[in-house]
Amino acid sequence: MKKNAILEEILNEVDKHPEIMSRREAMKYLTVSPLAASILASATVGAASASASSAKGKIVIVGGGLAGMSTAARLNNTLSNADITVIEPDPISVSYQPGQTLVGAGLWDLSDITYKRDDFLPSGVKLIKGSVTAFNPENNSVTVDGSKEVSYDQMIIATGLMLNYGAVKGLDGVITSSGKDNAAVKNSGIGKDGLHSIYFQDGASATWKGIEELVAKAKAHKGPEKLQAVFTHPNTPIKCGGAPKKIMYLTNARLEEAGVRDKVELTFYPNGGGMFGIKDYHTAIVQQFKDRGFKWHYKHNLVEVDQASKIAVFDHHWEEKGAFDDDLGEYKMVVKHERVEVPYDFMHVTPPMKAPDVVGSSAVGSGKGWVPVNKETLQHVKFQNVWCLGDVAAVPMGKTGGSARKQYKVVVDNLIATMEGKSLPSKYDGYTVCPLITSIGTVMLAEFNWASKKPGSGVNAASFPLDPTKERWIWWLLKVYALKPMTIHGMLAGRA
């Protein structure tokens, strides 16, 4: 897609919400901003800076979502004799998942984020519309749908992860983010009577209806006690770690817009002991919570939902000093637990997440399910012709589309180098980006990498010369208008 077409896609997104920003305002910003220039340029540059490689070999990509299909496109752009097969059962696997938060807040419709897998299959790349049911890396093959064996010279695992609602007592189902096969989850109560989740498409649509119901309930509420809106964050790694807070901020914005914010108490229950793993962002978010009158309770993991009574049950956990260990010269730390019951009128559940069972139980998986790779080269720790990226990779942090955008270039560079008999040239530095929506019209652009967690490093991964801990409308322009065109028309083409 040419640059002017990418620009038009961005402006089309702006036109959908003139109450937030006019096309003229957007154009003024886009013509002077280095941020906008970088977005437009990244979506139009060539896939590889070096000349095309003539390396040969059969490449199988397990998973045709954003990470897998972008990798297929970039390989196809770079290899002159490409033999690439993508295995993916979901017909809408390339749908724009980051947009589910905006669907949940009533800013976008499902049609704004739904894209068909087959429309983004690169020319010449083969597609198997099925599921891998077994990995056999010792024989360089996988089994599809229990019967068809597919061999490879190089394999890339990009399956994504599973939403494990069934890990919470009172809920049910294990689904993907598109979640079209979601009957068990919906039948268990998600999407109705105040119980919601934006993490699958239908759930996101239902969340907006739930927020509208909460607003209506608040308008009719006469009692002295406030209505309770509860937001959870589980005890597992999750994709888009900022999403549980984003939907809270947006619920707050809709309540303020309706003039009923004072009738609802919003409380965040994260399993961890902080708002964010990077100190500067944690501090900024705590202040944002204080400014908005939010409440929060750390180290609370949702373990049960009593839908009949509308009670959320949390495991509150903490550590206390135990007996003194004379040999180590320190106290043993003992984990304590407390059952906490919280009534809710509206609750957003962020489900526990896990690797697909077929991955975790196989030779390419690990005890925790995730695919063990060298965190920099993304090469499997046991099998040199196996690579992994995206949500299923066992790397610190990094379960975001922004991470995949960096990772897929590393995988392509290193895989081709391996096919050519060369050393691995590229390293992933852990870059992750979380555009944290803080209201309708403002975003805090949290960028970080592994080095960001080192003492004194600060927010060292920021791409632009602006304080990334500040909420800004220009980041809203990036998040809501620019990232989707860049992703759909740039990254899925193997260019951005």
Automatic annotation (TrEMBL):
It comes from the Bacteria. Coiled coil: none annotated. Residues 58-175 form the FAD/NAD(P)-binding domain. InterPro entries: FAD/NAD-bd_sf, FAD/NAD-binding_dom, Sulphide_quinone_reductase. One of its GO terms (biological process) is sulfide oxidation, using sulfide:quinone oxidoreductase. SUPFAM superfamilies: FAD/NAD(P)-binding domain. Pfam families: Pyr_redox_2. This is Sulfide:quinone oxidoreductase.
